[in-house]
Write a structure and sequence with these properties.
Shape: globular
Number of strands: 0
Radius of gyration: 20 Å
Number of domains: 2
Structural class: mainly alpha
Strand content: under 5%
Order of helices and strands: HHHHHHHHHHHHHHHH
Distance between the termini: 52 Å
CATH superfamily of the largest domain: MFS general substrate transporter like domains
CATH topology of the largest domain: Growth Hormone, Chain: A
Largest sheet: none
Length: 394
C-alpha cells in the first residue's frame, strides 16, 4: 500500500487559498505587531514619520491595477506565489535596517508583495467560489487567517516576554517561515483551470460605480484604523510590544470563531443589511477613539473595530453578484487602486494633523463611515436591477 506522508496533501483551489492565507497572515501579522514599537524604539519615529511610512506602504496598493499587465505574462497562481515570496523577504529583512529610511525601504518591498497578493487572492477566491457559497467560504478563510496570525502573535509574545529576543531575530524567524511555506505551496499545487478566461486589460464599467465608491471610502476609512488606532495605543497609552501583541491575539481568537458565522450571516441577510450594521458601528467606534481617555476602553474599541473587519466580506460578495465572470481579475486590480487613492494621501497628511489634534483624525474617520452608510443603502436596488437585466438576457 502506498502510504501518504504527513506533509502530502490533496491539492485543491481551497487548499491553495488556505496555505497562501497562512503565509500572508503570518508575515503581515508579524510585521504589524512589531511595527509601532520597532519604529519608536529603534528608528525613533514621530507621528509624521509614521504617517509618511504608511503612505509609502500604500503606494504599491495604489499601483495594484498594474497586476493586469503582469498577468499578460504570468498566470494568476504563479504571480500569487511570487508576491508571497516578496512579502516574506520584505518582513525577514526589516529588523536589519533600524533607521527611518531603512524602514521605509523594507516596508515598500513588503508592501509590493502584500498588495499584489491581496489583489490576486480576491480575484482567485471570487473565481473559484460559487456565488451561493462565497460568503461562507470567505468567512472560513478569515478564520484561517486569524488562526495563523494568532500563532504568530503568540510566537512574538513568547519571544519578547520569555526569551528576551530582539527585533532582528523575530523578523527573520517570521519572514523565513513565510518563505518556506510559500516554497512548499509552489511545490505541491499545480495550476488550476480558470472558471472563465479573464480580461487582460483595464476595465472601468459604469454599472460598477457604486462598488467603486464603497471601495474608495473603505480604503480611506481603513487607513485611519491601520495607521492611527495602533499608534494611539502606543503613544498615548504606553502599550509595549507584548501588550499590543496580546491585544492582537485577542482580536484573532474572537475572529477564529466569529468570522465563519459572520460569513454565513451575510449570506442569509444580504449585503446591504450587513454593511449598514458595519458602518453604524464604525461611526460609534471612531467617535470613541476621538474622546477616549482610558487605556482599557481604548482596547475595547480596538477589539470591536477589528470585529467589523469581517463584515467587509459583504463588499466582496456584492461585487461577485454584479460582475461579469471575465471581469473579476481586472476589476480586482482596479478596485485595489481605487481603495488606495485616499490611502496614499491620508496617512502622511493626517500624520501632520495628529501632531496638533489627535481627535480630528478620528472624527474624520466617523465622517467617512457616515458616507459609506449612505451609499450602502443603494445596494439592494442595484442588485435588483442587475438581476432583472440578467433575466431579460436569458
Amino acid at each position: 500500500m502506498n502510504k501518504r506522508r504527513f506533509w502530502q496533501i490533496t491539492p485543491t483551489p481551497m487548499s491553495f487559498l488556505v496555505l497562501a492565507t497562512i503565509v500572508m497572515a503570518m508575515a503581515f501579522a508579524g510585521w504589524t505587531a512589531m511595527l509601532n514599537n520597532f519604529a519608536v524604539e529603534a528608528a525613533e519615529f514621530t507621528g509624521a514619520n509614521m504617517g509618511m511610512l504608511q503612505s509609502l506602504r500604500e503606494i504599491p496598493g495604489f499601483l495594484a491595477f498594474t497586476a493586469v499587465f503582469i498577468l499578460l505574462v504570468l498566470k494568476e497562481q504563479t504571480f500569487a506565489v511570487i508576491s508571497l515570496c516578496l512579502l516574506s523577504i520584505g518582513v525577514a529583512v526589516t529588523g536589519l535596517f533600524p533607521t527611518i529610511y531603512g524602514l521605509y525601504a523594507t516596508t515598500v518591498l513588503m508592501s509590493i508583495g502584500f498588495h499584489y497578493f491581496e489583489t490576486l487572492n480576491q480575484s482567485l477566491s471570487l473565481q473559484w467560489f460559487k456565488k451561493d457559497e462565497a460568503a461562507e467560504k470567505l468567512g472560513q478563510l478569515l478564520s484561517v487567517k486569524s488562526m495563523a496570525a494568532l500563532a504568530t502573535f503568540a510566537v512574538i509574545w513568547l519571544g519578547f516576554s520569555v526569551f528576551q529576543s530582539d527585533y532582528v531575530w523575530m523578523y527573520l524567524l517570521i519572514g523565513g517561515a513565510g518563505l518556506l511555506v510559500t516554497l512548499f505551496l509552489a511545490a505541491t499545487h499545480p495550476q488550476f483551470i480558470e472558471s472563465a478566461p479573464q480580461n487582460k486589460k483595464l476595465i472601468l464599467r459604469k454599472e460598477y460605480s457604486l462598488y467603486y465608491l464603497l471601495v474608495f471610502f473603505s480604503g480611506a476609512r481603513r487607513q485611519i484604523f491601520m495607521v492611527f488606532a495602533g499608534f494611539l495605543m502606543v503613544e498615548k497609552f504606553g502599550y509595549d510590544v507584548a501588550e499590543i501583541t496580546a491585544l492582537y491575539m485577542l482580536n484573532h481568537v474572537i475572529n477564529i470563531f466569529l468570522a465563519p458565522k459572520i460569513g454565513s450571516w451575510i449570506g442569509r441577510i444580504g449585503e446591504q443589511k450587513a454593511l449598514t450594521v458595519e458602518y453604524i458601528g464604525l461611526i460609534g467606534v471612531f467617535i470613541g477613539y476621538a474622546v477616549v481617555e482610558s487605556a482599557n476602553f481604548a482596547a475595547v474599541l480596538y477589539v470591536i473595530d477589528h470585529i467589523f473587519f469581517a463584515m467587509a466580506i459583504a463588499l466582496k460578495t456584492y461585487f461577485q453578484k454584479i460582475a461579469k465572470p471575465e471581469d473579476i481579475a481586472a476589476t480586482a486590480g482596479v478596485s485595489f487602486t481605487i481603495n488606495h487613492i485616499a490611502a496614499v494621501v491620508i496617512p502622511a497628511s493626517f500624520g501632520v494633523v495628529w501632531l496638533y489634534d489627535q481627535s480630528l483624525v478620528f472624527y474624520f474617520g466617523a465622517a467617512l463611515a457616515a458616507c459609506s452608510l449612505i451609499l450602502s443603502q443603494f445596494i439592494t436596488p442595484h442588485l435588483r436591477r442587475v438581476h432583472s437585466a440578467q433575466a431579460s438576457q436569458i
